[in-house]
Amino acid sequence: MDLVVQDTPEAVAECAAQHVASRVLALPSAHLGLATGATPRGVYQRLTNAHQRGMLPLSEVRYFMLDEYVGIDTKEPTSFQNVLRRELLSPVGAEPHSLEILDGNAADLSAEADRFEEALRSSGGIDLQILGIGTNGHIGFNEPGSSFTSRTRMVELHEETVQSNSRYFDSPEVVPRKALSQGLATIFEARSILLLATGDSKARAISSMVEGPTSPSNPASILQRHPDVTVIMDAAAASRLRSAQSAISKVSA
Ligand code: F6R
Fold first, then answer.
1. Given the CA of residue 37, which atom of ligand 1 is nearest to it?
2. Domain chopping of the chain, boundaries
3. What is the pLDDT of residues 160-172, one digit of tens each?
4. Between 20 and 30 A from 141 (CA), which of 4, 84, 149, 183?
5. Of 97, 77, 73, 95, the residue nearest 36 (C-alpha)
6. Residues near 229 by Cβ (< 8 Å), separated by ≥ 6?
7. On the CB side of 165, how many CA atoms lie within 13 Å of its CA?
8. Is 85 helix (H, G, I), strand (E, B) or coil?
9. What is the 3-state secondary structure (H, E, C) of 105-162?
């Protein structure tokens, strides 16, 4: 795992945008897996800006959703599909079909999960998966207890996740309790992974992911086994890492 510690969330976004842009410039037809939530927002803004300044061609890029709430209208601003189209795909003029969606309104959610897996497989897979991390260590919506062999499927959100995500909704009561999520094994198949974390609320999850035991009770710890993972975090998110000091020296070296 390559650990990069930056001073501020803005510096995390800048560093992560450069990381993504360099991959896309090296492989213009890259397949990008996209997380939603607050953490990657600054990255998507910077990618949009670079594209609009003519410095980042994105016309050949194909995008894949990481997760989506079940039963949410895609016109709702909190629908992950809506967020991704609003924050990245529309501003860069991406074709609507360049996003492989997870349809949380499908009549048969299990068939929808299988369809997504097949679309992923037949596309050749994800080159770079962008991830955030939950305060409880989830990646995607793979909550603690998720199997390391899990594939895309319908999942129940833990109470901690519902409470945490209530900041995006009018009240905790209206936060969806179910989601479709790529599984841990699905995420693990991405050729390269970029995980972002900011703020001290993520410090415990980051130290467990990097230095804790690899166990389904700590879902993000599966990434310890992946050959190409970069974690870009701010100092607050890195504050519980025993290895934080060496990570910081690595950045400033
Ligand atoms: C979102 C996702 C989640 C979030 C995580 C952190 O697509 O898969 O795992 O990345 O809950 O969310 P934020 O960034 O809002 O703190």
1. 15
2. 2-251
3. 999 989 988 988 8
4. 4
5. 77
6. 1, 2, 192, 193, 194, 195, 223
7. 26
8. helix
9. CCCCHHHHHHHHHHHHHHHCCCCEEEECCCCCCCECCECCCCCCCCCCEEEECCHHHH
If one residue of 32, 34, 66, 101 were mutated to test the ligand 1 pocket, choosing by the most ligand atoms within 8 A of its CB, it would be 66
**Measured in angstroms, how far is the CA atom of residue 23 from the centroid of ligand 1?**
22
CATH 3.40.50.1360 fits 2-251, yes or no: yes
Phi and psi torsions of 116, nearest 5°: -65, -45
**How many angstroms does the Cα of residue 53 sit away from the middle of ligand 1?**
28
Which two structure tokens, joined as six digits, stand for 107?
Answer: 């009549």
Catalytic residue positions, numbered: 67, 136, 138, 143
Q: Give pLDDT tens digits for 46-95.
A: 999 999 999 999 999 999 999 999 999 999 999 999 999 999 999 999 99
